[in-house]
Structure formats: structure tokens, C-alpha cells
Amino acid sequence: MLTSRIVGTGSYVPEQIVTNDDLAKIVDTNDEWIRTRTGIRQRRLVTEEGTSQMAAKAAKRALEQSGVKPEEIELIILGTSSQDYCFPSGACEVQAMIGAVNAVCYDLSAACTGFVYALNTAHAFIKAGIYRTALIIGSDVLSKLIDWSDRGTCVLFGDGAGAAVVKADETGILGMRMYSDGTKGDVLICGARTNGNFLLGKKPELGYMTMNGQEVFKFAVKKVPEVIRQVLEDTGTPMEEIRYFVLHQANYRIIESVAKRLKVDMEKFPANMEYYGNTSGASIPILLDEMNRAGKLNPGDKIILSGFGGGLTWGATLIQW
Ligand code: COA
């Protein structure tokens, strides 16, 4: 069966660590509140780097591991909601930075579900026989979209990038599903920075991220188990066969609740938000790369990737490693 296989992973996080105690100096919060509500202890934040630079660093590491040369890449999809420019796309910038001269490149906007949407989209191209080799990246610098005086959001997020090289093969992605619900867009939203209007005499304003935390929480713990069950049902895969559930790293309590609803042991739900916070589109590929480099993924292992976020968007992919 023609499918798509991940043949290399890479990730990159900025050097600068910002702890919960650091944030307690700028907003009315504390380490205990943040840790117990979210599982986050610290995050990495950029100083000089942008979304595309981080994406290119993660991409280079994935290429190195895969042995695929930049000129062999036919498609680059960058899942991001924090592009450095309106245009050119971040994916085109990455193309230039890594020398992927033969690739078609574009960004995909699905907030924290960006990597899963991008991977599934590349898979569709590969399955259709249009491309054979793709580079998928999730990279976000949400620190530039955050209102740093809003304690309800600023403690949750971090910056980072993760990437995967995907090739046509006989084994790999076994199934996938994606969903969107545009009627709930306002529960997790970031205004545009270019909303000026000449005729109405409106000056452009800065837009910041706002969130209804409890609505997002309820959405995630309902929709993630649902979409995972659907992918398993589509492919006739029993839940017990899944070695790991690699979920978007938004919040440890969301993961615990998903595990409980699926009746699966937490041992199968790796987590690293403790160190990076919620890195949006980057969280799944960063975790996947860490697991891959730690030798935790063995050929034949079945793993689920599942993302959820603004849009609202959510989805899941079943992979045989
Ligand atoms: N530090 C201290 N107190 C805080 C705080 C912070 N950083 N942020 C909010 N609070 C306060 C609130 O103001 C509120 O105070 P009040 O009772 O005096 O009004 C209290 O804590 C409880 O707020 P609430 O929003 O009910 O907390 P919660 O238990 O729902 O936890 C989240 C808040 C954000 C941690 C939780 O809703 C969540 O994890 N949601 C999902 C968010 C997410 O993952 N988003 C990204 C998805 S991609």
C-alpha cells in the first residue's frame, strides 16, 4: 500500500529559559498555580530569532537524520500561526535558508493543530502520487502575539519548532482524520495586526491573543478522544495496540483527562510541556523528535499523533513507525 513514512525528525527551541517565578515578577501569578493547573514549569522564548529561522534549524536537523538532500524535497508545508511576514510565506523563507530549490512551499494556518494538518496534507499528496518527498514543519513564536499583562494566557505558551521529513513508502501513516468548527473561533483568537481601514479612518492596531480557557479545555477533552477513536475504528486498530499517544502539549490536565476517557494508562502519554510550555504547532514534532532521538520509537510501533487548537481545529494521525 502506498503511504507516507516519517524518515527523519528534528527540533529546535530557543536558549533563553523563562521560569514561572520569572513571570510572577510581571503578572499576579505564582509557580504553584501554574504548575498545578497546567504542568508547566518553564518555557523557552526567543530574543532575536523569528518563526522561519527556528523552522529552518529544526528542518536541517530532520534532513540530516533522514539522509534526504534539500534538493530532493518536493513540498514544504509550515504549520504556523505566527508567521514573521504576511508574505513571503515562512515556508518560502525556509526553502531559501535550507536550499530546497525544487520544493513548492506554503504555510498552513491551523493554530496548535498545524503540524497534524500539515502532515495529513502532505500524506494526501503522497498517496495521490503527486509528490514523493516532503518536509513538514510546525514552528511558532507565540511570545510575539501574547499580551504579557494577561496572566490568563501569558503563563501558558512558549516558542519552538519541530520538523519531519516524509517519504512515499509501503508502511507509515495508516489513517488520519481532521475537523474544524469555525463557529467557535472566538474561544481562542488572535486579532490581525493589519486591521486598519483608510475609508473608515481606522488606524491599524496591534492584535493580541485572547482565550476562554474553560471552553478550550472542554473542547479538547471531548474532541481529542473522539477523533482518536475514529481513526482507530477507520483502520480496525485496537486501542491496546497503540504504543504511544503523542498529544499536543497544551496542558497536563488535558492529557490526563483524555487518557482517562480513553481508559489508557498515562505511561502511554509522553509529555514535555513542563520544559517548553505550549509551543503551539511545534509541540507535537518537538516531542516526537525527543522520543525518536531517545530511541523510544521502534520499527512497527503504532503511535497516534493528535492536535487541537484555534479555529477550532483538531485531528489525529495513526502511524506505524
Ligand atoms: N495565576 C494565578 N491566577 C490565575 C492565573 C494565573 N496565571 N490565570 C487565571 N487566574 C485566576 C483567574 O483570574 C480566576 O480567579 P478568580 O476566581 O478570582 O476569578 C482563577 O484563577 C480561576 O480561573 P479559571 O480560568 O477558572 O481557571 P481554570 O482552573 O479554568 O484554569 C486554565 C485556567 C487556562 C489553566 C485552564 O482553563 C486551561 O488549561 N484551559 C485550556 C487552555 C489551553 O490549553 N489553551 C491552549 C489550547 S491549544
From TrEMBL:
Q: Name the NCBIfam families on file.
A: fabH (TIGR00747), PRK09352.1 (NF006829)
Q: Which family does it belong to?
A: Belongs to the thiolase-like superfamily. FabH family.
Q: What does this protein do?
A: Catalyzes the condensation reaction of fatty acid synthesis by the addition to an acyl acceptor of two carbons from malonyl-ACP. Catalyzes the first condensation reaction which initiates fatty acid synthesis and may therefore play a role in governing the total rate of fatty acid production. Possesses both acetoacetyl-ACP synthase and acetyl transacylase activities. Its substrate specificity determines the biosynthesis of branched-chain and/or straight-chain of fatty acids.
Give the originating organism: Candidatus Enterocloster faecavium
Q: What is this protein called?
A: Beta-ketoacyl-[acyl-carrier-protein] synthase III
Q: From what superkingdom does this record's organism come?
A: Bacteria
What does the domain comment read? The last Arg residue of the ACP-binding site is essential for the weak association between ACP/AcpP and FabH.
- Map out region (ACP-binding) in residue numbers: 249-253
Tell me the pathway: Lipid metabolism; fatty acid biosynthesis
Gene that this polypeptide is encoded by: fabH
Q: Name one GO molecular function term.
A: beta-ketoacyl-acyl-carrier-protein synthase III activity
Quote the subunit structure annotation.
Homodimer.
